[in-house]
Amino acid sequence: MPRAFFRLFTPLIAGLAVLVMAPVAQAQSPFSAAVYVNDDAITNYEITQKRRFLEFIGAAGSDPRALALERVIEDRLQLQEAERLGGRLTPDQITDGMTEFATRVQLSADEMLAQMRQAGIDRETFVSFIRAGVLWRELVQATYGAQVNVTETQIDQALSVEGVQPSTEVLISEIFLPTDPQFAAAVERMVPQVQRIGSETEFANAARQVSVAPTASSGGRIDRWIDVGAMPEPVGAAMREAPIGRVVGPLEVPGALAFFQLRARREARSVPMSSVEITYYRAGLPGGRSESNMALVQRMRGQIDQCSDFPGTVLRDLPELPESAVAEVSRIQTQIDAATRGELERLNPGQISANLVQDGDLQVLMLCRRAITGEGVPTRDAARVALMNRALEGFGMVYLQRLRAEADIRYP
Q1: Torsion angle of the four alpha carbons 313, 330, 364, 274, in this order, in degrees rounded to the nearest 10
Q2: What is the model's pLDDT at position 13?
Q3: Following DSSP, what letter does each residue of 329-361 receive, concatenated?
Q4: Do domains 3-147 and 273-372 have the same CATH topology?
Q5: Residue 194 in contact with residue 187, Cβ under 8 Å?
Q6: Mean pLDDT by 10-residue block, N- to C-terminus, for the chain (412 residues)?
Q7: Residues 6 or more apart from 278 whose CB is under 8 A from it?
């Protein structure tokens, strides 16, 4: 990294050192405090238990203890905030949460607890995980639920092929700069420098020097694939299109300016044609590619923006056509003839094709939707809940980052 870059960061480094200093490994009792979160002690034993739990569910990452420490801190912040605002759970709610989690791996709660005991994980570790998760979910729902409005169009999109594929996931690194008044001048000079970073190495060095995010010690790296749909929209939208290595930001979040660097992106396309139902309109116009027919198609493209308008527009312009000449068709993709399927494959919903001529008639096609069909397809209610949860995850991510920025986290 250029010397000028480090010189620019120097005024802030001293002020932030206490915030980003990594804990020093010490030979301590398992029940001595490893870290304090707003004066609430987290013990070495709790971190060890969390590490075992993450290993048990296959989410330990490349540095299990470091990840366990971060997750325990997040759990404690979530619990503190929920309890501050009056959140409470009944024993039945905790039991239900444990049962719900266990059923994800086809186990009962008792069976999961038995397997955890064999892995050296005590019951309270599981209970604490469920308590923090349920309370946090209810808190985010109560705080932001009224801001989430899932429309019928969004549900249609979620249940369509376009809503399922591609599923875009990204690996990112992050830098959070404080917005405290005493750092304002230094941060203002720093922002354009961060925006001009052109490599992962430079970004990682900068994160270690100045970021107040918990990932600072690892160069800002978040070592898990993140669905862009679960990210706050300004970031998620940018990550869908940004080239690898691009720095996105600053994004204003409570208490900080956030920058994200895209390290990798992947997409999954896994819906077979036999599970795709295509709905489209077809109109056969006598005269093939006549000037009048092509002029009509051009007008249709300018006038029609939804499928419900298709039959009325065609029959109004060609009153001599029988109504049977215009048809709405819904078929599994593999059941559509190859020529028509090829035309529809090139269309997005709402677009019109007029390239085929069959039996002397110009075949005008308008794609309405591609829907997933067959076993395992969620209901509209399930899709609505999933969309709400996805939106709330984004709000929750920003909420938690604010709590991190405001928290007094110190190591003994």
Answers
A1: 150
A2: 44
A3: EEEEGGGS-HHHHHHHHTPPTT-EEEEEEETTE
A4: no
A5: no
A6: 42 42 51 88 92 83 85 92 89 90 83 90 91 91 88 77 64 87 88 91 92 82 73 73 87 76 76 79 90 89 88 90 90 84 79 84 89 71 82 88 89 86
A7: 329, 330, 331, 332, 333, 336, 341, 344, 367, 369, 370, 371
- pTM of the full structure: 0.49
**CATH architecture type of domain 273-372:** Roll (3.10)
The pLDDT value given to residue 160: 67
CA–CA gap between residue 179 and residue 44 (Å, rounded): 32
Structure tokens at 215: 């990932």
How many angstroms separate the CA atoms of 155 and 146, rounded? 18
- Domain 164-270+389-410 of CATH type 3.40.50.1220: no
Asked if CATH classification 3.40.50.410 holds for the domain at 3-147, the reply, yes or no, is no
Per domain, the residue ranges of the chain are 3-147, 164-270+389-410, 273-372
**Among candidates 221, 220, 251, 247, which has minimal Cα distance to 234?**
251
